[in-house]
Amino acid sequence: MYALIQRAAPALALAAALHATMLATPAAHAQPWPARPVRVVVPFPAGGPADVLGRVMAVRFTEQLKQQFVIDNRPGANGNIGATLLAKAPNDGHTIMFATTGPLALNRLMYAKTTTYDPARDFAPVSLFADMPLIVVANQTTPVKTLQEAIAHARANPGKLTYSSPGHGSMAHLTAELIQRGTGIKLTHVPYKGSAPALTEFLGGSVNLAMDLASTYIPHLKSGSVRALAISTATRFALLPDVPTVIEGGVPGYHASGWFGIVGPAGMPPDAITKLNKIANDWLASSEGAGRLRDMAARPLGGSPAELGKFISSEIDKWRPVVEPIAAAAQ
Asked: Where are the beta strands (DSSP E) in the chain?
């Protein structure tokens, strides 16, 4: 019997070694993140503020992490098409999203029956990025030079003044709704699938007014092709000091802004979140980042993933009493 055990010992030892090797293989061969190119979903068309800033950060992530970060524009439904794609993506860290207030918070309220994802449940917060004011502008052919004149014109001609926005339920749409509620006027909303197509149609004269993030229209304000009527900040905006606030235009207590954030699918690896968060925050704190955002009329924010998660929840609570009646009226 002893001889039998002796003969079997080498085989048993080999089997044990193989078993140990098999158990160690996943750890031994685990690849550091990112192991391949990363898709950056931007749920709006190319050319808009989210796309521009998303591309800036994709370049930065590529430089720092030595893997390609590739923009994937998925416009439609005020960002819901891209956000739904993200919610269903593998949570291995190789798909993330750079988005705005709508898909990150408000769509859950505006499109309650058709939004299949929950930002608080289905997204992993990475970093709050920046915010920027919204602006109300008019075509040179539209016979108003101030917000007060636009309000008076709309009051005398209900529904005759049209305005573009980058989508139903967008912050620009809510901006217009709050102005209408605060003044009792009626405007006709013409929504588009993002800022770029809304801008094109506005510049082409298809609508009288436009409401969107300020960065979209600053180049055209400088060229004189459009006329600024009001800015959404509570006080005048440093980059556009000659533009009155909506409050000055006759809407007491008005204040609104759009914001941007980076998220991944729920369950995304903590290591990937930590790396992306640090790179984003470092860029926002740099002179390059501050300068680039200043040129786009944006303010750098940053912060921890947990802070973004809390901010998303607070934005949903803040806008719920405003958005839900608008959503109900649209049904």
From this structure: 38-42, 69-73, 95-100, 123-139, 162-165, 188-191, 209-213, 226-231, 257-265, 299-300
Question: What DSSP string runs through 249-311?
Answer: TT-TT---EEEEEEEEETT--HHHHHHHHHHHHHHHHSHHHHHHHHHTT-EE----HHHHHHH
257/121 Cα distance (integer angstroms): 24
167, burial (CB in 10 Å: exposed 0-12, middle 13-18, buried 19+): buried
Could you tell me the pLDDT band of residue 18, with boundaries at 50, 70 and 90?
very low
Place of tokens 């808009």: 48
Asked whether the beta carbons of 309 and 120 are under 8 A apart, the reply is yes
257: phi then psi, degrees, rounded to nearest 5: -155, 155
Q: Read off the pLDDT band of 178 (50, 70, 90).
A: confident
- The number of beta carbons lying within 10 Å of the beta carbon of residue 3 is 7
pLDDT in tens, 27-75: 434 578 999 999 999 999 998 889 999 999 999 999 999 999 999 999 9
Instruction: Please state which of the ranges 167-176, 238-247, 306-315 shows the lowest mean pLDDT.
Output: 167-176
How high is the pLDDT of residue 325? Answer: 85
Q: Return the structure tokens found at 163.
A: 């305005």
Q: Which residues, in sequence order, are bridge partners of residue 134?
A: 213
DSSP bridge pairs for 38: 69
Specify whether the CB–CB gap between 195 and 48 falls below 8 A: yes
Residue 328: pLDDT band (50, 70, 90) is: confident
Is residue 192 within 8 Å of 76, Cβ to Cβ?
Answer: no
Cα separation, 274 vs 276, whole angstroms: 6
Bridge partner list, 73: 42
